[in-house]
Amino acid sequence: QEEKIFAGKVLRLHVCTMEGAEWLEEVPEDTTVEKLKERCLKHCVPGSLEDPKTVTHHKLIHATSEKVLTDTKTVLEENIQDRDVLLLVKKRAPTLLPKMADVVAEEKRKQEQKAPDKDAILKATASLPARSVDRSVTHHNMRDFQTELRKILVSLIEVAQKLLALNPDAVELFKKANAMLDEDEEDRVDEIALRQLTEMGFPESRAVKALRLNHMSVTQAMEWLIEHADDPSVDAPLPGQAPAEAPAEGAASSAEAAAGPSLEEGGEEAKDELTEIFKKIRRKREFRPDPRAVIALMEMGFDEKEVVDALRVNNNQQNAACEWLLGDRKPSPEDLDKGIDTNSPLFQAILENPVVQLGLTNPKTLLAFEDMLENPLNSTQWMNDPETGPVMLQISRIFQTLNRT
């Protein structure tokens, strides 16, 4: 009776193992954690105490606090309460340090797999016959690629015009197309490019002006903004920007007046009339050469008209335009207006694509094609457009697929 009176408080603990075994352990609160571990191991691992290392290779964890219990402390010192849950876990074996021989072997293997440097390449290829790559052929193939894309756009424009002419709502479609053509240039600035510049700290109005002057090129616009940062006229509006809407309304009304009666009469005359109207729309878009490239090439002694033709053929790329002027000057500016063979497998595959077919009935697609013909650098803007982007993506995929076969 005296032992029961003076004995410490008995705690009932719920013990679990990683294998799923569970049981209750009743221990006095002055029991050490090591003794508690021994009792647990006797319960779940018979014969485990024959190896003294078994106790040290296990640990008890308090489930609520996730604390690892210290072997030399008592249950009371670890602040364990009645009905607490403990987890019996086997300790992980310590990671062995690699042997020095293994480290040396690994470093040697990495050195063997390392790419050779320039001297090693020259030494290994010294006995090979010298060959020179014809850079002009590579550049010519690139120009052929660009020319082929232009031909596709020219032919697709003709198809889009005919489809729009056959539509009973051709006049309304023309109004929509003409309105989009004459809309304020600020609404047509590439939003992604504008956001990149504004995030750099440039004012939005100034960034819009820089993008318009540099054909939506972020790099060139940024250079322009830095170069003209202290220019007092940097925020002045571009010439002809404000009154741009007035002629647009007049053109729309006059075109509507011209197209309206013809379309009401029906027949081929209406289709021809609408085709002429879209030709007028195309004339509204003039190629805008890079002014810095024009100045640089003219300083080399070339005539201004030649320089503009060179930049138009080479998509405003100054280096390519210079090579064109010094070379055979092919393709010629007249070749840019020639379409692709309508019976070719490439063009037939493009026309059979459902996304392209649907896009050709949208006036905005026609305007995108016209704009990219005259200003190829604007293609990024149209690729990001939700209406014209899918059409351009399908054309690009079909071209690349057939070009590889």
UniProtKB/TrEMBL annotation:
Subcellular localization(s) per the UniProt record: Cytoplasm
GO annotation (BP), single: protein ubiquitination
UniProt keyword annotations, A-Z: Cytoplasm, Repeat, Ubl conjugation pathway
GO cellular-component term (any): ubiquitin ligase complex
Gene3D superfamilies assigned: 1.10.260.100, DNA helicase RuvA subunit, C-terminal domain, Phosphatidylinositol 3-kinase Catalytic Subunit, Chain A, domain 1
Bias (Low complexity): 236-264
Location of the region described as Disordered in the Swiss-Prot/TrEMBL record: 231-271
InterPro entries reported in the protein's UniProt record: STI1_HS-bd, UBA, UBA-like_sf, UBA1_UBAC1, UBA2_UBAC1, UBAC1, Ubiquitin-like_domsf, UBL_UBAC1
SUPFAM superfamilies for the chain: UBA-like, Ubiquitin-like
Protein's name in the database: Ubiquitin-associated domain-containing protein 1
Organism of this sequence: Anthoscopus minutus (Southern penduline-tit)
